[in-house]
User: Fold this.
Amino acid sequence: MKRFNSSDSLAAFISITSSKEDRTQNTNQGYSRDFQAMLDSLEEEDYIEEANLGSEKKRRLTLHQVKALEKNFEVDNKLVPERKLKLAEELCLQPRQVAIWFQNRRARWKTKQLERDYGTLKANYEALNLDYSNLEQKNEALAQKVKELKAKLREEIVDSSHSVKEECHVSESDNHDFSENKNSSAVTKDHSNVSSSNELMNCFNLTDSRAILGNRYQVYQPHLMKLEEQSLFSAEESCNFFSVDQAPTLHCYFPEQ
DNA sequence: TTGTGTTTTATTGCCTCC
DNA sequence: GGAGGCAATAAAACACAA
Assistant:
C-alpha cells in the first residue's frame, strides 16, 4: 500500500510555489513593476494560505513542467528511480508526482494506441469487405454466364437430336433396300461395303459440335438409344455413326474394347 | 453565470517481480 | 515484504455553449 509520508507535504508545498512562479511568468508579463509586485504578493498570499490550510487541492502542472515531462516520456516511457529523482529535482516536483504523471501518461498513450489499432483494423476490415463484395459480384456474373452457356448447349443438343431423327427417317425410306436386303452377313467386319457406309455416314453428317462437346460419345448416347429403340438399325449398324474422328466406316464402336 | 462534458492529477486496491 | 506498475475511479481544473 502506498501512502504519503511527512516529506510529501513539504514537497507538495514546494511544488505549489514553483507552479506559482511559472504561472506568474506566463500570465503577468507587460504590467508595471508595482502592479506586478502587488500581483505577486497577492498570489503568494493565496498559495501560502492554501499551503497553511493543508489544502490538498489539485494543481495542474505548468506548461514548462509538462513539456519537460513529455520530452522525457518520448525518450523512455518508463521511469528508473534515478531519472525520476532527477526529473523531480529539475522540475521542482515530488518524485511521486513524476511517477504519477508517467503512469497517467502511459494510460493515455495506451488509450490512444487502442484507438489507432482500432482504426487500422477497421480500415483493413473495410478493404477486405470491399474485396469480398467485388469477388461475389464476379462470381455471380460467372455463374450467370455458365447458366447461359448450359442453356445454349441444351438447345443445340435438342436441335441436333431433332435433325438426326428427321434425317434418319428420310434415310430409312431412301435406303430401304439397305436395311431390308442386308442379311446378317451383309455388314461384315471386313468393311467391304465402304460406299454404302459413306452414304450412311453422310446421313449423320451432323453439325460438328466437337468444339462444344467434350465427350461426344456420352453426349450422343441418348440419341443412340433412341435409334436402337426405333429399330432403325441393328446394334452393330448403329455403331460408330458419330465417330467423326475417323474416316467414315462401319467400324463398330465398343466402348469396353 | 451556470450547467455540463472533458482533461488532468491523484488515490486505491490488486498484482508481479526481485 | 517492499517497490513499482496497472486498472478503475474520484475529484479538481478547465472549456464552452446557452
Q: What stands out?
A: The two ends of chain A are 93 Å apart (CA to CA). Residues 2, 57-60, 78-79, 81, 99, 103, 106-107, 110 of chain A lie near DNA strand C (CB under 10 Å from a C1').
